[in-house]
Design goal:
Layout lengths: L4 H11 L13 E11 L2 E10 L5 E7 L8 E7 L2 H5 L7 H13 L4 E6 L2 H4 L2 H12 L4 H7 L10 H9 L5 E4 L3 H9 L4 E5 L10 H9 L27 H9 L13
Parallel strand pairs: 4-5, 4-6, 6-7
Antiparallel strand pairs: 1-2, 2-3, 3-5
Helix pairs in contact: 5-6
């Protein structure tokens, strides 16, 4: 099943004059158009959104009828022109996008939210400047900081609003990034599970992925193995006193609201 024509009409009617302040300053998106999207990865529908405050455009690539859906498999993918369109080997973006589309196409329902947040939110020109700094030995975090940005300038209020507009009740999030779950939950999204999304590195992006794992807190095994939730458990050994247990627990990665590891 897909989103039906009557559902599409209802969604477009509801969003025509939509205006809200529910998802943070400058975060209010409207559904602008919906169409079928057959792809080499499977059959989808594409939902176009426009942020009516900064005019940025985002899309949801939807498989199945997600309206009112629970535990919908979802991937948040930030735009990467160099990777997604040009096949750059400096990152894993194209591989992650393709893999997520293939995985979701095999599900009953699922969504890829394609967000216009190029270069971790710093924009295309600044991303190329960061590449130039990396060519001279800086890692991706050091390059962003040298340009006057934070490690990651993205935020996911837009994604939360898009899910709410599609009436999605809860999601299983495909991610290795704990911040995505924290940010979505902050905006009211119910995340029931983290689904690891790790792909093998190549010789050009291995250092980039290592930096994401060691500096940005991503759950990535550099050999490309999935990082399982039980691997995040810190050992509590017999004979430990309360102070020792507190130290171990303080080193545990942030958890999502259902108690599972964020990522």
């Amino acid at each position: 099943m897909t989103i039906s024509k009557s559902q599409i009409k209802d969604l477009l009617d509801e969003n025509r004059e939509h205006e809200c302040d529910s998802f943070g300053e400058d975060i209010c998106v409207r559904i602008a158009a919906i169409a079928d999207l057959p792809t080499r990865f499977g059959d989808f529908q594409i939902v176009a959104f426009r942020n009516n405050r900064d005019n940025k455009e985002h899309v949801a690539i939807v498989h199945g009828d997600v309206c009112g859906g629970e535990e919908v498999l979802t991937r948040l993918h930030s735009e990467c022109l160099t990777g997604d369109a040009l096949g750059s080997l400096r990152c894993d973006c194209r591989d992650q996008l393709q893999s997520s589309l293939e995985t979701i196409a095999a599900e009953k329902q699922g969504i890829v939210l394609y967000l216009r947040q190029e270069g971790r939110g710093i924009g295309l020109v600044n991303k190329i400047r960061a590449y130039g700094l990396q060519d001279h030995g800086l890692d991706t975090v050091e390059a962003n900081l040298a340009l006057g940005f934070r490690d990651d300038e993205r935020e996911y209020g837009v994604a939360a609003h898009m899910l709410a507009s599609l009436k999605v009740k809860s999601i299983r999030l495909m991610t290795n990034n704990p911040r995505k779950i924290e940010d979505l939950e902050k905006h009211g999204v119910k995340v029931t599970e983290r689904v690891p999304h790790v792909l093998p590195p190549n010789k050009h992006n291995a250092f980039y992925l290592k930096t994401k794992a060691t500096k940005s807190g991503h759950f990535i095994d550099l050999n490309g193995y999935k990082h399982l939730m039980e691997q995040d458990d810190r050992p509590i050994l017999q004979g430990m006193d309360e102070d020792q247990i507190k130290v171990v627990e303080s080193q545990t990665a942030p958890k999502s609201s259902n108690g599972s590891e964020a990522g």
